[in-house]
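ok so for the tutorial part 2 we go from a plain amino acid sequence to predicted structure tokens. step 1 is just haveing the sequence, like this:
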Amino acid sequence: MIDENADKLGALLDTPDLAAALNNERFKQFLDHVPVAVAISELHPSETITYANREFERLTGHSIAEIEGKSWRALPGMAANEDDERLLRDAVKSESDYIGEFAIGQEAGKIVVDVWSNTIEDEDGTPLFRLVALALAGNERELDARATALKEKDEQLRELQHRVKNNLQMITALIRLEARNVQDDSTGERFDRLAGRIGALAVLYDTLSQENADERIDLSIYLGQIATSVMAAHATEGVRLNMKLDSWIASVNVAMPAGLVVNELLTNALKHAFLDRDGGTITLHSLVDEFGCHITVADNGVGLGDGVVWPKPGKLGAIIVQSLKKNAAAKVAVDSEPGKGLKVVISFAKAAAAPGA
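step 2 — the prediction. this is what the tokens look like for a chain of 357 residues:
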């Protein structure tokens, strides 16, 4: 609805000569029948309201005679949000474009309106008019009911996430238990790898189910939890983790594949990087600079063998990396030499990984 009303406002702002149009009775009749409240003020010599349509009269509860010729101080209403103390009469002059929801008291009770305010300039860029538009968002009872329904759905979603997390944790435990009983080492490792991936998803659901969580994830917290989980599941004597994580808010669509990739690399390092060695160091850094976020997973172990690449084409790891490239335009750099370890750097720009991107 907001987008639709914004389009109608845009059509008014595109009127070539507003002053001439307002002197045209057919144009005024058109404005009187649009479902958006419109009021216009001339900015010179002093700003006063020179026109208001019938919908503006209906939504504000003030007659056209009471509004025209007055300043915007005659405009009733205040911000609908309890934490917002703006008065509508001040906001329309100090802000522009969509300025928010405002509550207006009427005899039948409060209504809530979406409000836009824009100045209209001449060809030289001199502001000539201010156009204020209001569109009904709902009455107080409807908005309260909508808020209650959203709260109930939010609580149901959190409960669902909690159950999914618990089920994932149980599945992870059962798979790892089964992996220990498999005689074939390669089959057992595949079970264990699957358990790790499911465990990473369980951590994600745990983060989402926390109070006030939404579609945004702090990547530093998420990756730190994954690292802790992987180290606990595959503890290797003599191997230490060097971890440095900057706070970075990313969308779930970015955090999920990033977490799975980190889980994969840490698991590989613990299982294979230090074979026949007394120990070593695994590095997990997620550092933020002016360009974006750079996730580094590295080890000083045996490195990839001749002809071996990571991720291996056709395997799930490659699909996960491809998902990260698609969802966040990520760049993945892999560096490895036999005997000198493996280093993977995943970089993505801030705008590409932001929530809603």
